[in-house]
Amino acid sequence: MIDNLILGFGVAFSLSTLTWCFMGVSIGMFIGVLPGVGPLAAISMLLPLTYYTTPTNALVMLSGIYYGAQYGGSVASILLRLPGTASSAVVCLDGYEMTRNGRAGAALFLSAVASFIGGSIGILLMSAFAPSLAELALQFGSQEYFMLMTLGLVAASTLSEGSAVKGLAMVVLGLALGIVGLDTISGTMRFTYGNMELVDGISLVASAMGLFGLSEILANIGKGERGSPLAQKISLRSMIPTGREIRDSLPAIWRGSAIGSFFGALPGTGSTVASFFSYATERKVARNRAQMGQGAVEGVAGPEAANNAAAQTAFIPTLTLGVPGDAVMALMLGAMIVHGIQPGPGLLNDTPEVFWGLIASFWIGNLLLVIFNIPLIGIWVSLLRIPYKLLYPGIIVLIVIGTYSVHLSVFDIYQLLGFGVLGYVLRILKFPTAPLVLGIVLGPMIEENFRRSLMLASGDYLTFVTRPISAGLLLATIAIVASQMIAPLKRWRRAR
Amino acid sequence: MTQPSPPTQNRIAALLTRDRVGAALLLICALITGLQASSLRLGSARMMGPGYFPWILTGLFVLFAAILLLNARTDDEPIDTGPLRPVGLIIASVAVFGLLLPITGAAVAIVALVVLAALAESGRKPVSVLVLALVLVAMVWLVFRFGLNLQLQMYPGDRG
Question: Nearest C-alpha of chain A: how many angstroms from B36?
């Protein structure tokens, strides 16, 4: 592990990688501060930019955006009670109360420190467990991969917010969109309707930008001005916490890191679930549990450590198994494939410099966030004062030019528009859009493994049950589905 | 709880709940997928043709549409789209950009996009919109043409 990390730091300390890392975390921090623009929109908007650099730099920057946004999301939560990202929503509760008590600076500082510790623990666990998981994955056949992807899709669509049925339906729609184009096994065109531009399939960039970028604007336009002015000045001196605040938050940070690392590595439960679970834990065990909701430091430190730890360990299944746990990771996976990297157990063995370089860059990125971005919090916050009506035309221009730049194709702009409208309609009907992207990315892979499994088993469906790992994954999937059916069944029986 | 209004309109609005329209949407997806699947070779479980997986997806679409209809919650609300004019203007701005880009190049297309998009929010001064559009054209020119060397045609006859 030490040799590997040395290799990794050798890659990550090159000037160009450091530059892309710094760009990533700064943009991520900025995006995270802006309410309503999440890491999904940011990553899809900046995906085209990364085609101009090496695969390693591209991944370093994209993941920098992701965990940078986790940091930034808490800033808006603490200062304005507006969650910048879903995973920092729970920080609003005690963070904003701390602001009202005049401790905004301390809350920001503690959340940054908690994020750093949580992130570091996540990275440590990742470097320790990823190789052995990849070792295990070498024994996986098509059956295991198919079941693993099924488990991931079912978990991601049912355990997140909203209706489980609607989430699953969106996965199916994603899978259907994912198989558009040339079927590589039989050489047949599917769903292309004679359009040559669809042969390579739906454009991942166009669909992600439409679903997360454009539809966001469509949903917010005409709803009046958002955001509220900020009264409190944040000076560096106001950021120093008291000794008591530090003593109280440290245990919460350890607990949050453990919870976050666990939930991040599981498919389907990302940083949002982790931060809520950590908050619920703190409400039971924290020393200031009586003050939770009224500005207790544990309510900020715990969830912040949890969501940053989860943001790191979420990379474990994506990188070692090639199976993403949520939509952000699905975009990462898509980006790797575009850059010609096949994630999976082979990634560690064939291109260790990519894998360990990425891990080392996580560490550097987290450090950059603490060193450079905490003093800059004042600047990020002043950006919150840019009126939305100046911002959104610029975002649309960035989206359309970015989409066009990937293939220099006007057709991609119409794809973008189609997905933007689809995302808007789905939002009105309260369908989640994140499982859709997961389906689009996994569609071709899950079908290929499904077909190969049954080909190897001579058409016998029992092959998914007779192989032990596959059977275990199937059981876990069934357990999740069953747990989702309890509540509706109870309601149904009560109604009779 | 609702105020007296024209009965027919009310009844249609009450029928169009989120879950019902969602289920209808899923059934349309099932229809499209099923039609496509039926034109592809099915094959067998041992040697699946390109149509096998789409048929499974068709079945899942129907299944989830059925669950959504049966499980229609009592608190299911009628659809609320909000104001449609600004949404239409944003859609038009992107469509016009796509139409103009190959003809006039990016500069004119961006100005058209920004003007249409700005109309979506009321109370904008024409001068400030034009300034914003020109700033964005300059930024795209700098970042994408010079910075990233993208083959983006800025004006008619521009060789990039």
Answer: 7
Residue for token pair 């065990």: A285
Q: Would you call A313 helix, strand, or coil by DSSP?
A: helix
Q: What is the ipTM of this complex?
A: 0.90
Q: State residue A347's pLDDT score.
A: 83
A397–B113: do the CB atoms touch at under 8 Å?
A: yes
DSSP string covering A119-147: HHHHHHHHHHHHHHHHHHHTT--HHHHHH
pTM of the model: 0.82
Q: Rounded mean pLDDT of B43-64?
A: 93
Beta-carbon separation of B18 and A430 below 8 A: yes
Q: Give the pLDDT of residue B120.
A: 87
Residue B123, Ramachandran bin (φ over 0: left; ψ between -120 and 50: alpha; else beta) = left
Question: Whole-angstrom Cα distance, residue B69 to residue B73?
Answer: 9
CA distance B104 to B154: 8
Determine the average pLDDT of the residues in A385-406. 82
For residue A377, give Cα distances in angstroms to A88, A103, A112, A233, A236: 16, 15, 11, 11, 10
Length of chain A as a residue count = 496
Are A140 and A148 contacting, i.e. CB atoms less than 8 angstroms apart? yes
3-state SS assignment for residue A111: helix
Pairwise CA distance, residues A143 & A450, whole Å: 7
- Give the integer Cα–Cα distance in Å for A63 and A363: 11
Tokens of B16: 């169009």
- pLDDT at site A1: 67
Alpha-carbon distance A393 to B97, whole Å?
Answer: 12
CB A203 within 8 A of CB A408: no
- Measured between beta carbons, the chain A residues lying within 8 angstroms of B44 are 459
The ranges assigned to domains in chain B are 7-70, 84-147
pLDDT band at A146 (very low <50, low <70, confident <90, very high): very high
